[in-house]
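Human: Here is a favour to ask of a fellow structure person. Comparing notes only helps if you start from a blank page. I am asking you to supply a protein in sequence and structure-token form. Write it directly below this note and I will take it from there.

Assistant:
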Amino acid sequence: MIKKTIALFMMVCLVLSLGACGSTSSGTPSTPGTSGSPDASGNGEGAAPARKESIVSAAASEADLFFMYNTVGAATNMDEVPILHNVYDTLVKLNPDNSITPLLAESWEISEDGMDYTMKIRQGVTFHNGYPLTVEDVAFTLNYGSQTPGATSLMFAVDNCEIIDDSTVVIHLKAPFGGFLNSLASRYGLVVSKKYFDEVGEEGYAEKPVGTGPYIFADRTPGDSITLEAFPDYWGGEASIKTIYHKVISDPNAQIMALENGEIDVLINTNIAPLLKLPESSPVKYKVQTAASVMPMHFNMGEKAGITKDINFRRAVQYAIDKEEINIGTYEGYAQPAPIVIVPGFTGYPGEGNFNVIERDVEKAKEFLKAANYNGEEFSICVTAGTRAETTAQIIQGQLIEVGINCTVNAVDSVSWTAITRQSGDFGAHLRPSSSSTLDADIMYFNFNSTYLSKETYHIGNHLPELDELLVTGRTESDAEKRREIYAQAANIVTDQALAIPTLYDMNVVAFNEKMNGVEPGALVGLYYMHDWS
């Protein structure tokens, strides 16, 4: 049954350390000592410290797009973030505790009306190809880059960037937006070279990315690995780790075995369950933070959709899902069930009790399934293999089979996931974490606004004008209470129409060798500053 939310959640801090979760295990991070200290090498007193100058990081999903500002509509996602944010720099840095500190902007001032951001640009910075960073590069990034299809989602507030002098720009907004510094810290705030872009264009930039970041994009073997080399002239000093091989390992068991065997040093965005089973003596440590993302399951309602166009079928799925069981199975109970896609703690979050919540009701699920025109056809959930989404989908599969739905899980690599969910349309639903780099309720815009989501995006086949209008209005409404009301209405439409099923508020889990220092997960899954590693 539908009922108003009750006090389901404690106030969620967006950044929650493992210790704050009250969780302990062999994975509780130790402080193995800074590189160069006598005990860092493990060689005993008086031994020379062993400094490892190359490491291997790994993730289940493959990064495959390395220029953010393309005009063909290809959007980068969080799979690319570990690479992008180390090859390029942003003006400001979003730290693991969600604080903002200077990066390419040494300082900034915000006008009283929140419409103008005056930025002092760091001097003496060079791109990897030797070109100096200029205010023209910053203005080009914001005036051109922010208007490209993928970037408009996060940089929608930008009106224009004005050059004041050789070290100063003013970013003028269309309307005040409290999350704008977070926008600047996102992948669509990464600064590119105008001169290099003029020479090579979009494809050339994507083929050989050039930024001012601490690592040079040295090599890539599609489907296998990316090699990053430390930039010796980095303005913040050359990184301690000279070479990082970033590998794709989709098998969860292979991930942990590789970490325990020392074949990899850092495992990004992994599952917590196998880590909890490690013995105290394991060299593998891990850290967990509440992520600024949710794991929604979107139905295929595009031209090739079948039974998922039937609202009774979608509601049957909605009532059949037990989110707490997913939480236990996927996160050992560490995460929180998600009634809506807006993460508690985001600006614009409607507040508990102000939106509709669906609770599991097997009998009601069967009633809706009976009312649907369902004849036992396959309902396939498409996920990226080796991720928490796959685990989540497998649990959902069991729950749906229980009510009579012929559910299957199609676990594929990330490139195939994109092809299936964006091009072929051969799926019943897809499931993948959805993040908001602005830490704002505007995450709904990216998930449900039909203008943002192209017609080829199958999960938004039903265009709802009322929902579209609410999500556009919510972006620019300056009154906080009115914004919360707008997003409560929008959330209720999504729930009532069963457009998607939020499952859990995601967790960001990183595992690493105990001798690694500086590996800190943030609210944004995939956002790691490898310059801080040693």
Observations:
- The longest strand covers residues 284-299.
- Residues 1-48 have pLDDT under 50 and may be disordered.
- Residues 380 and 427 are 5 Å apart (CA to CA).
